[in-house]
């Protein structure tokens, strides 16, 4: 996998990060509980067909994983069972799930990549085990555990099951499922447009950049949620934007609230929001816009993903604003 020299890694100043002997660093295990979480974009816009498109595996493009230097506990071709070590509630519908890794081993994931969960206890309509992708919130070189922040959906097959798990229970995990192969300084500037639990792949990229002081990439996160209480990883983002000028955080909420940064906007992402915060399309290959969220949001901003996990046509606000397909990546 893509790894930084350990000496180049730096700390995030939050209580959930812990410095390990040998300079390995664990990020974002579990911030203090907040409350609430819903998409800023109405799910009704795209309906369940859209949900299915976001959730379906289909395929993840043609990105190949980068070989790991360390010992990875995961295997991309083999389901392996991992034991749930701890559950840390985050808010009313999202919790951290911390799975144990064998001693001295890490997830070995490349950035950005996901894993897939499977449980024989959860079957789909064709009586096949349900499989869903998740992006760890712990850094790829975190030894001994792998953490996920998972939002529970009412009647959601996998999330109802995972939220019912107890420490000691086991789950099959496979990965990495490679997504976008992030490289330091490939772009001058990137923008991350996320909604709700679509934040986790963005957080993976942000951690990678934060840990590499030689990476000069400027990052703007535009993160939509229904209310302030629904913002996932808020503590991490606020800390990051305070200490590291490479990062700018912009929250979007259904209704503005007290105690939020000045850049918080009300309502959905609009052409005005994009033109205010995004690097201009004229910057060509010096920029990249990443999009991850529920189908209505992705459809409105960039057009939905295509068949079998392909990127699909670039449409929506980004196309209207003049961005080109190769300037945009949909998770
Ligand atoms: C690359 C990637 C990374 C991801 N990472 C994360 C992550 O880190 N954290 C996270 O929380 N999520 C993540 N997700 C989303 C995750 O994969 C699941 O899609 C999500 O957890 C919901 O799964 P589920 O099986 O519980 O819900 P599903 O069973 O798929 O259902 C979702 C919702 O739709 C409703 N629904 C579905 N079908 C029907 C139907 N026929 N009739 C009526 N209602 C229906 C359900 O009631 C439920 O509310 C990621 C997705 C992708 C693509």
From TrEMBL:
Gene3D superfamilies reported in the protein's UniProt record: Nucleotide-binding domain of ferredoxin-NADP reductase (FNR) module, Translation factors
Name listed for the protein in its UniProt record: NADH-cytochrome b5 reductase
Molecular functions (GO terms): cytochrome-b5 reductase activity, acting on NADH
Organism domain of life: Eukaryota
Keyword Metal-binding: no
Topology versus the membrane: Single-pass membrane protein
Localization of this protein: Mitochondrion outer membrane
Location, primary (coarse class): mitochondrion
FAD-binding FR-type domain ranges (all copies): 77-183
Family assignment from sequence similarity: Belongs to the flavoprotein pyridine nucleotide cytochrome reductase family.
A cellular-component GO term for this protein: mitochondrial outer membrane
Organism: Tilletiopsis washingtonensis
Cofactor: FAD
Binding-site residues for FAD, renumbered to this chain: 132-134, 149, 151, 157-158, 200
EC code(s) of this entry: 1.6.2.2
Catalytic activity: 2 Fe(III)-[cytochrome b5] + NADH = 2 Fe(II)-[cytochrome b5] + NAD(+) + H(+)
Alphabetized UniProt keyword annotations: FAD, Flavoprotein, Membrane, Mitochondrion, Mitochondrion outer membrane, NAD, Oxidoreductase, Transmembrane, Transmembrane helix
